[in-house]
Design brief:
Blueprint: H1 7-23, H2 34-41, E1 45-50, E2 56-63, E3 66-72, H3 77-93, E4 100-103, H4 109-122, H5 125-134, H6 142-152, H7 156-166, H8 172-178, H9 182-188, E5 206-209, H10 210-220, H11 226-235, H12 239-242
Parallel strand pairs: 1-3
Antiparallel strand pairs: 1-5, 2-3, 2-4
Helix pairs in contact: 1-4, 3-4, 10-11
């Protein structure tokens, strides 16, 4: 493990992430379906996917008991997973009722902590060590890296950053060498490219969670009309519910 000025902050956020995993009923090795888990464990959460431009990864807000996270659907699935874990740190561990906008230019200690937490939530330190042991990894090459990021469903950049700047097991030349061309290499190894691709067109604007549950409940209790229900669902981009489309009707 690399020892520098940020190590205590990283160790603390790693411990925080491991505690949250245990509280949610997960061990510190298993990969997480972070979108499904967030919706299940935070009943007041609404998640919305939409294009946010190249410089914004996500935003979050909490007012009273309502929690909202926006995720950039133009970013890769792996990066979306990381962004969601990052935003969960802001919602769960920080007291802030204003909009937080997170992107490339964010340099605050809060953003650094959220990044460290996200990395550890998706792949705790112990998980990476256990993965190395289970797969007899003495030296991290591109094939090992792709297999590991696919297992934990994290972005390629997040995986490389972890190996270089936190665990210090690849050097800077390797870090630069392994960054480009990952999709082609992943396909050669038999993986799909979903982890490296943005949301498909049918899910560029999409939503999950509490807003939908509340809308459906209000309609079932005759508190709103079918027209108002449809209007509210369209506001969060759920034409699939309105028109009774099935998951298979989307292009994946």
């Amino acid at each position: 493990m690399k020892h520098d000025n940020n190590i205590m902050g990283y160790l603390e956020t790693n411990q925080l992430a491991e505690k949250l995993r245990r509280r949610w009923g997960f061990d510190n090795y298993s990969p997480l379906d972070i979108f499904s888990i967030a919706i299940e464990k935070l009943p007041n959460l609404t998640l919305i996917l939409l294009p946010l431009g190249k410089n914004i990864s996500g935003c979050c807000s909490k007012i009273n008991n309502d929690q909202l996270i926006l995720i950039n659907s133009e970013h890769s699935k792996g990066r979306q997973n990381f962004t969601l874990a990052h935003e969960l740190y802001h919602l769960i561990y920080e007291d802030n009722e204003e909009w937080l906008i997170c992107g490339h230019d964010a340099n605050s200690s809060s953003e650094e902590e959220a990044n460290n937490f996200a990395s550890s939530l998706l792949m705790p330190d112990g998980a990476l060590s256990e993965y190395e042991r289970n797969n007899n990894i003495d030296k991290w090459d591109l094939e090992n890296i792709i297999h590991c990021e696919q297992f934990f469903q994290i972005s390629h950049d997040a995986m490389l950053y972890r190996l270089r700047f936190i665990n210090d097991v690849i050097n800077y030349d390797e870090f630069k060498k392994y960054r480009p061309g990952v999709k082609n290499e992943a396909m050669k190894l038999g993986f799909g490219t979903e982890l490296y691709d943005p949301s498909p067109d049918g899910k560029k604007y999409f939503s999950f969670g509490n807003y939908i549950r509340l809308t459906e409940k209000a309609f079932e209790n005759n508190e709103i009309s079918i027209g108002k229900k449809n209007e509210l669902l369209l506001d969060v981009f759920r034409s699939d519910i309105i028109y009774n489309l099935k998951e298979g009707d989307f292009i994946d």
